[in-house]
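Our collaborator T.R. sent over the components below with a one-line note: 'Predict the complex.' Nothing else. No constraints on interfaces, no templates requested, no preferences about which chain binds where. So this is a plain run: every listed entity goes in together, and whatever single assembly comes back becomes the starting point for the next discussion.
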Amino acid sequence: MTNPNPAAAPAADEAAERLAATSAEDGRPIRSGWRMLLPTMTPWLAVGLSLVVGITLFGLIGPFLVGDPEQIRDQGLTGPSGEFWLGTTQTGQDVLAQLAHATRGSLQIGFLVGVLATLLSAFFGIYGAYKGRFVDEAFSLLSNVFLVIPGLPLIIVISGFVPRESRGLWTIAVVLAVTGWAASARVLRAQTLSVRNRDYVAASQVAGERPWRVIMVEILPNLLPVIASQFVFAVIAAILGEAGLSFIGLGASNSSTLGTMLYYAQNGFALSLGAWWWFIPPGLIIAMFGTGLSIVNFSIDEIINPKLKNLRLHRKRARRAARLERQLTRTASADPEVSDR
Amino acid sequence: MSYFLRKLGFYAIALWAALTLNFAIPRMLPGNPVDILLAKLQQRGGTVSPETREAYALLLGGDDSSPLWKQYFDYLGNLARGDLGVSVSYYPANVSDVISQSLPWTVVLVGLSTIIAAVLGVALGAFVGWKPGTWLDSLVPATTLLAAVPYFWLALILTYLLARVLGWFPLQGGYDVTLTPGWNAEFIGSAIHYGFLPALTIVLASIGGWLMGMRNMMVSTLSEDYILTAEAKGLSPRKIMRSYASRNAVLPSVAGFAISLGFVVSGSVITEQVFSYPGIGSRLLSAVQNNDFALMQGVFLFITLAVLGANLVVDMLYGVIDPRTRARS
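Returned assembly:
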């Protein structure tokens, strides 16, 4: 079933072309299955995507273009200038150089935790809901308990017990992932419960497919947009969590992230000395990146959330109405007789 | 009635899980907290008797003389008696005394600002979601900026602008230190003045989530049949919005209180550090910096207890206002 007959493919292509041609005559583009899974391009989505891509590029390429972030100079606490675009820190380090390296560090940990937390939540959410009964009860109890126990105080306590020497990038990542998977496991569980009872899943079970195959092949593809959205949330939460942890001096000992920058800014009295160029940029990067990701998620949400289908319809209808109106006024101005009708 | 019993049972399990985590964490992680703690204690002039050592070992592990299960039950017994050990950084005060001094500050600050944020956010969300697709509605994604801002950074910015540049509010602290704490107008006024910036930070940072959740529910409620019926009856749009749409749309926001409260508490812990606010978050951080493990665990337990308690109350309320939840279970 999954392996289409290669000989039939050209015929299918032809059919698709014909379909495209007829629909082009209608003036309405065809929508393939994949198109429906992708968000519609709105100005907001464009803003979000460019924020995410821009900051990612800054984190990836930036560190190669700037100087040594650790280099100490005798021009401490100077404001933005031609030589140092974002000024210098108390010990004369280039803020822009630090920012580029710190952005890379934050993105790294965000991505790492995002992947770990998504894996955990997929396991507990999807597997539990698929198995049902006792496993489901146990897993959902576990995730509910993790959900109500406040995350950051727990992280602070755990990091407080780990000696500073052994507090590496992976330790922090694992701690953040372990305390951050519960919410998305709950969402995935709810979605899996609805997908699990569909006929084709039952059919593949009757056909003797093994549980893992049913989950991977029949259920998982339906959950991909949800997982994508949960991954995005996990990345935001991880970057914010790590920044908070580093800000109070409990971050990974050998890493430099945006939170570490803010930690040094706070302890270097940037606030009372009025060195705004030192503490504003790191937080701004976090805020912009988080906003970008949230907006992307906002668009994903309109696809996966059946309750928001209205909204897409509303918007599409409004757009089509606007287009029609424009067309009408155009034809009306070109041909005054039409407007009389 | 079984809904309430189920909820009570769940929170009992959650509480037990938190207590057990608290017991397990120091025992699972590397390092020897008891020795660090006792060394600190001696520095501060405390005498280390075998009993003190035993009490700390119960709390933090490192005691090999008795089996683990016995340690566990002794630990639970100590907690039940409210004995959380002696704080090292505030020696010779007990951990429970240090916590009971700072807890009211945090409860009032976080409680008030959460209520303000929730009421404002839900009201705005209902208003915006009532007419999807208008220009006001298209501004909603902008509120995600507020949700993505780290609490402590927002606190830094607000302090810089309102306290340092404009000088309207004090830079840090919880009250004017020249006053003696008490229930008089002068002290309360000073506490409000000092607490305004931390509260503003929490409200600004958490209002976006409430707004977004309410707006989404409002949009989906609009397509319900009872809204159409209400419109067909010729009720005024304002009445429909207030009594028909918002009332039903607000339910998930109430149910989602648990998750948001956890976020707010987490955020405020670090915010308190920025303002040197005399609340429980600053205590937790100073405990971490001073390796005061007993205080650290005590604060974590109290925060968890407070969050669980607040959630239990909200869940009970939810069972009362939405009869469907009771019927389902």
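Summary for T.R.: Chain A touches chain B through 60 residues (CB under 8 Å).
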